[in-house]
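::Encoded backbone::
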Amino acid sequence: MTAEAAKVLLVDDETGIVDSLRILFRGEGYSVVTALGGAEALEVLAKEKPDLVVTDIRMPTVSGLEVLARSREIDPEVPVVLMTAQASLQSAVTAVNEGAYYYLQKPFANDDLLAICRRASEARELRAENRKLKTEIKRQVKRSKSRPIGKSKNFLEVLELAETVAPTGSTILLSGESGTGKEVIAKYVHEISSRSEGPFFSINCGALPENLLESELFGHVKGSFTGAVKDKEGLLVAAEGGTFFLDEIGEMSPALQVKLLRALQEREVIPVGATEPVSVDVRVIAASNRDLEEEIRRGSFRSDLYYRLNVIALHLPPLRDRREDIPLLTKYFLVRAAQASESAPTDLSDAAMQSLMIYDWPGNVRELENALERAAVVAGGSEILPEHLPQRVLEAPTPKLVSDRPLPNPAMEVIERAYIEWVLQAEGGNKSRAAEVLGIDPSTLYRKLHRYGLTD
């Protein structure tokens, strides 16, 4: 806080001293508020929230030390400069021990007082900058540790936008097929936001009947319905200061949509059976695998709720459109499975990886994770081979490089395998000649043939 922008509270029980200090500090560019005596200062402190306090110690009714104590209760970072005409070593020690920035004896030179206050303001500004820097460093560490895995362009675009909007507190609407990792993104946004110290709660709107979902979201009071034997706090209230993730928002009934809309607009909820609203301070992130705009046209989803939720829209691409992320995800899931079982990570053969790259993964990342967990168990600690993978993965047709409907954004491995196959066929299976056409050594070609499972 610079002296030009700082608000200073001047406290003394003598009008003449207050007036002279007001002129002095205004001349230096401070915003000045005054209090005639300690009792008035206690009222002004809570109302004005000054950046700096200059107060006399000896005042009737309420002393400067009491003003100091109250100031530190409101904001421990506000520097307080104490003035006294009857200085003693003991009073100075007491003042410093109780948190005074400086203890100044009257009479004093105006320049000395201004210099002390300038240093106090600069020290406060430096502490604020240090706190901000520590918070940002902590956020960056969290970001590096918890950042979702992926290097594909379309997925990185989603992550970068999520990282941009995370500190803003804006409501986010996540869309994408089931299993694409919408809750993973929601948790990531929470962890790198200013609300990361608060709770993260989530609920699947399609997993509960309407009455139970309403009670879970908004809470209820004792006796509001059969089985309500005591008051229950709703999750929106329980997530105070944090983030609340509403998964499958498209499954919510129209009646609950109205109540949720009101909660978002008014920042308050009314528990089932209650008459008084409860204020809430929570960031909402919603998700759906449905096309909500189509649901609006069908009349099953409210347009006003949609626009309230759709402040920031993030669409997660399906795994088939980000195949270059499959090797990274595979390594991550195998390492995590090994940690859970306290064993060494299971290796994956090149042929098995090729099968993973070809399959379309209709269940997306969740299906990949389950397939790898199964494969690691079936392999029993040995290298995962194609036969350890689910049959549906093995039966996936080999994609053609050129067709009426080519793969969207095919991975480099898919393109390379298809090109090698095409050259081999064109050269009648002659590997030496194929290596010449491809511009690689025969040994390199043999390694690639083995990797892609094209050996005889």
User: Anything to note?
Assistant: The domain at 147-317 is CATH 3.40.50.300 (Rossmann fold). The mean pLDDT is 87.
